[in-house]
Amino acid sequence: MESTEHPTEADPLRREDGAETAPSASEQRENSKNVGVPKRTHWRTAIFFLSLFICLTIVFAFSFILPCPVRAQYLKTWNRTFSEAATYDFLAVEHASSDKMLDILFVLKNTEGANNLSCASGGLSSPCLFFIGVDGTDGETLWERPLEAEFHWAQCGQQKEPEKSWHCLVAHAYNLTAIDKYTGKIIWQQPQPTGLQSSLPFLTVPDLDGDEVSDVLLVASDSTQTQLVLLSGKTGVQIGFTVVLDFTDTASHLLHRTKGGSYYVVLQKDTGVYGLALWRIAAKAKLKVELKKDAHLEKNASDSAPLIPIFEFNGVSVLQTKKKGDTSDMLVVTSSGVVLIDGNKLQPRWRFNTSAVVSELSFGHFNKDEILDVVVEDNIGNNTKRVVILDGKSGGVLWEVDLLAVANSPRPGSVYTAKSISVFMFWGLMPSNSNNSESFVGNRRSYMLLPHYPKILLECSNVMEHIIAFKATLLELGRHAAYILLTGPQVEGANGTVVLTKRKLKEDVPSSNVLRIGSVDESNEVIKEAFNRLRFSSQ
Q1: Largest alpha-carbon pair distance within the chain?
Q2: DSSP labels for 308-339?
Q3: Hey, which of 154, 395, 458, 528 would disulfide with 512, CB 3.0 to 4.6 Å?
C-alpha cells in the first residue's frame, strides 16, 4: 500500500498543496560550492580583453612612432646630360648617401657644375674640374666639389679603416686632394711631390708615421728612374725622403701582402716583374719603423740588389692582381700569354698562351668552385678577337667565342648572382652580323652570357655613342644589377656632350636578340625568363 505522505510519479502535483520541501544537507553543500562561479568567470574575461586592448594599443602606437625603413625607390634607367663639357676615364661606384643603394662618382670639366655651381664660387678660374657624386637611385646630384684643372687621375675605395676620414684621392693641376665621398668635403690638399708625375694606383700601406692611420705610397717613373713617395694618410704631408730606384719605365705596380704579413711593392717593366720589400723602402726614406720581413723571399735580395725577381719575361705588358683573401695571387700578361703567380710562393701556377691580349683582364665566376675565373680578349687577326674564360684554378678554357674587334669596345664586366655564378657582359660584334670590315665600324653591340646556357648570348645594340668609361656592378644587394656608362667626345678631355647613364641589366633582356652559338633546345622565351629570374649577390 502506497503512503499518502510522499508524492509519487503518479501524483506529481501533490507538492503544490503544501509547503515546499527544504533541500537536503548534501544539496546545500553542492549549492554553496557553485555560489560566485559566474562572477569570477566574468572578471577573468574582462581582464583578458583589457590586456589585449592595451597590447594592441602599444603595438599600433609604436608602428606610427617608429615606422619601418623605407626602401629606396629607384629608376630602372636614368641619364644626365652635360653640354659643352669634358670628362675622363674615371667612374667609381660607392656608398655616398644614407640609403642602401650605391652611388656614382665621376669628374666633369666645365664652366659650371651639375647644380649650376660656378668655378668662381670655389675661387677658381674657368673652366675647372667638378668632382661629382650622383644618387644611384635617380641620378640626382648629391654634391659637387670644384677643383683646379687639369685632371691627372682619381681613385676611390681603398680606404676601409674607420680612422680615415677620406675616401677618394684626386691628382689634378699641381695638387693632391683627399675628398670625403659622403659630403664632397676636402679633407686635405697638398702640392704634388716634386719630381715625376705619379700614376695609378696609389697604394695604401700600413701606418708608418705613428698616427694610427694607414698611409699612401705613390709610384712615378720615366725612362731614367722610378720614384717612390710616402704620404701621411691623415694630412697628406710627405713622410721621409723620396726613394729613387735605378728601375726605368715602370708600366704598372701593386702592393702585395705575403701569408706571413710582409708587404712588397710589386713593380712591372718590359723585362719582368720584381718585388721590393716595404721595410726596405721605409729604411731608404729614413723612417724608423718596424715592419715584418719574409725570411724566404729575402734570401733573393740584398742591400745592393734589393729587387726580388718574381717573373722574368720579355715584353710584359700588363700586371694585375687576383684577389683571394689576405694574400692575392698575381696575373701577369706577357706578349705571348697569361701567367698566374702564386701569392705565397711567388711561383707560376699556370700559363695560358695568347697571341696579343687586347684589353685589360677581368674576372667573374663561370663555375661554382668559388675561385675567380679570368676573362681574356685575345687578338687572333683579321679584325677578330677571341673572348676566352679561363678556369681560375687550372687555367683551362671554360668557354670561348670569336667576335669582331670593334673600336671603342670597353673591357668585359660581370655581376655575381645568388646562384654562385656570374652574368658576363662584353662588347664587339658577332661575325654573322657583318659581311665586311667596313660595315661593322661603329656598329658595336653588347653581349650577355649566363653560364647555365653556354651556347646562348643575348645581343643588345642600344649604345652607339663613344664610350669613355663602363662599369657593370651591383647597386643594391640581391636585386639591382646595372651597368654605368660615361659617354662623350672621342678625344678624352675634349669639349662636347657628356652623358652619364645608369641602366638596369634586366632592362636589356626584352629587346635583346637571342643568339645561338650551339645546339640548344630551350625556346627564346625560356632563355629570357631565366635572365629575368636572376637574383644578384655580393661576393
Answers
A1: 145
A2: EEEEE-TT--EEEEE-BTBSPEEEEE-SSEEE
A3: 458
